[in-house]
Amino acid sequence: MKPVTLYTKAFCPYCARAEKLLKQKGVDFTDIPAAFDREKKAEMVQRSGGRATFPQIFIGDTHVGGYDDLYALDQAGKLDPMLAD
After folding, report:
1. 0.90 cut: is pTM over it?
2. What region holds the Glutaredoxin domain (predicted)?
């Protein structure tokens, strides 16, 4: 399974939903709290092509987007293939 990275902030309902969806799929992920860390937030914005909302989700080096994007991929049946090696 490809590594999954989430840039999150505390008390973010979309972050919690993304984490829940990934956990339901049995996906281990790296959670990077970036809201109050300037370096991590700048890294997130750079990696995501300028997006500064939370969460920002990456599968391997591929930027998925936020929770709505992750959910849409799952509903379309495209998330599991992305996660596979």
Report:
1. yes
2. 4-64
Q: Is residue 77 domain-resident?
A: yes
CA dist 81 and 58 (Å) reads 14
DSSP assignment string, 8-43: E-TT-HHHHHHHHHHHHTT--EEEEE-TT-HHHHHH
Q: What is the pLDDT of residue 45?
A: 97
pLDDT tens per residue, range 14-65:
999 999 999 999 999 999 999 999 999 999 999 999 999 999 999 999 999 9
Inside any domain, residue 32 = yes
Residues in the chain: 85
Q: List C-alpha distances in Å: 48 to 3, 59, 77.
A: 16, 12, 23
